[in-house]
Amino acid sequence: MSFNNKVAIVTGAGQGIGFEICRMLAQKGATVILNDIDIGLAKNAEDLINQNHPESCLAMPGDSSDVDFINSMVDTAIKLYGRLDIVIANAGITLYGDFFAYTKEAFSKVLDVNLGGSFFLAQAAAKQMKAQANGGAILFTSSVVGHQALKSLAAYAMTKAALEMLAKNLVIELSQYRINVNTVAPGATLTERTMEEADYERVWSNITPMGRPAYVTDIANTALFLVSDEAKHITGQSLIVDGGWTSVSTLPDGIK
Question: What are the residue numbers of the active site?
């Protein structure tokens, strides 16, 4: 897959899956606007990518759920690079909580970031792609918990299932403009955050049919395929990348 002369926006990309997606896009020729709400993470990620692929990555720290900021990212892509070809709405937050005690504040925050940010980024990007008249690709990041229930994740799981429905619905809205829209649904994945959890790798290796959790490269490879020219006839789909876990759905230790 080549991404020469392609311009992409990736949110939630200061580390983990988002960072790896940006790194691989730059490696394959794309110019990437890398977003993260954490200024330090965003700038460090920009530096790391540009060390190997000079001037291929621009950090834009900010709140990816804020519509004005979303529009500024799209405007920056057009002002600096003249086009926008790929958008990957990867930013999301996980706020665990007992259903009976879950607060409206937590609920609203999860919806704003996971759903609102993704919806309005897709909207802004699609407007630009429509105006360019040469198509484009939009990708949402869902989760296996959009397919398999896990305790204390009701609000988060709801948003991830909703993203998959959003992708399906946008097929009606965007196909005529040659914009395809899909969703990748990662399972347990080794990232900076998950590796801080005690026994994360051991637990998920034991219950994943393929014998290990995903690496960020597993998810990034899938994401790149779905936004590549090779996948232009794939739209409205969700691709689960979980080493087979949802097929058996064995629960981690201590979760009932």
Answer: 156
pLDDT of residue 256: 46
- Token pair, residue 255, equals 């979760």
Query: How many CA atoms lie less than 13 Å away from 184 in the CB half-sphere?
Result: 28
Q: Which value, to the nearest 10 degrees, does the dihedral of the CA atoms of residues 193, 199, 200, 201 take?
A: 110
Q: Is the dihedral of CA 2, 65, 147, 216 positive or negative?
A: positive
pTM: 0.96
In this structure, are residues 181 and 167 in contact, taking their beta carbons and an 8 Å threshold?
A: yes
Chain-centroid distance of CA 231 in Å reads: 17
Could you tell me what percent of the chain has a pLDDT over 90? 93
Which structure tokens are listed for 41? Answer: 């993470």
Per the CB < 8 A criterion, the answer to whether 8 and 31 are in contact is: yes
Q: What does the buried/exposed string (b/e) look like for 93-132 if buried means 16 or more CB atoms within 10 Å of the residue's CB?
A: bbbebeeeebeeebbeebbbbbbbbbbbbbbbbbebbbeb
The per-residue pLDDT for range 214-250, each reduced to its tens digit, is 999 999 999 999 999 999 999 999 999 999 999 998 8
Cα dihedral 220, 252, 114, 57 sign: negative
Enter the DSSP assignment of 205.
H
DSSP string, 46-86: HHHHHHHSTT-EEE--S-TT-HHHHHHHHHHHHHHHS---E
